């Protein structure tokens, strides 16, 4: 019973546990368990509530039998069970509700079978035998893709890097159906969870405070699910609480993401490049989000140079975001000349789309379907995927020798009005 992104954790587990509500089922389960070579004492009294309490502190079995006769809301209770049940467990449920729609909903939620009470010993044996066959069968995961880690870095504050990160993660998970982790490393002021209308929880804070706890089970329980294929780890740490970490927790988190997901998207504040440069060690694609301004051109140049030196394996995608119609501070052509490479994606500014996304608690990419902004984000997704799936690991060309900013930018052609105003003032 597991979401698609969860890793298989089928190591040292008991083969069978059961939680039943009535004496007849209790006696039958114990007898059949003994027939199959399983310990009869693993059959417990108590239904769903007892199962959730028990599995929250013990390892999940290979096969779990759960009696839902006393459950008032079966689907909600199954979701509660999923939160404490380790991935790979095969779940058989039993209950007294004879409803085809409930059966379909339960199977869709991840259980293997649903037995209508009262059931016979032969029915039970067949269900357990099928569950055992499912557990032992080799899992066909299809062609395995190498994990792809993408880091989204804002050249300056306010350029919309977090919006790009959440949209990219949503697109990877929804459009490409790739199980995706979104890690928001702005521990105090991150907005990724807010943009997805989620509560961030304490997962990231707990990871920073207790790096030794980080493992596959911690990832499963600490991350907040946005959908079946997207999970987020973020925080809203008190602003009176300084970030005390050497970055080891972040590195461990990314290591676990490699096992649990196909893609990781890191919303990486630019100050993290200075504090924890090792975070870029395994990044496949670096998406630098900028705007068409003089200050952003300066900082884009510096960040591209840093990536070239410190993360040469990363392929770079440059995104000009929130570009207003009309004349920006710097034209695209002049901006590209200054950074000595092309802008890969230009996302136009659309106040209506941005406002609608904020009101609905959805990503801009989802809200902008059918608009120019939506088309730009599709181009962004394709650029990121293309860079991540490239056969060779050579970094994207980022320009020639490292030059000073004054050597890169032609101030006279970019900001003539400022020059003229100054001359007039001096005159």
From TrEMBL:
Gene3D superfamilies: 3.40.50.2300, P-loop containing nucleotide triphosphate hydrolases. The keyword Phosphoprotein applies. Keywords: ATP-binding, Nucleotide-binding, Phosphoprotein. The keyword Phosphoprotein applies. The modification 4-aspartylphosphate is found at residue 67. Residues 17-132 form the Response regulatory domain. InterPro entries: CheY-like_superfamily, P-loop_NTPase, ParA/MinD_ATPase, Sig_transdc_resp-reg_receiver. Residues 388-407 are annotated as: Disordered. It comes from the Bacteria. This is Pilus assembly protein CpaE.
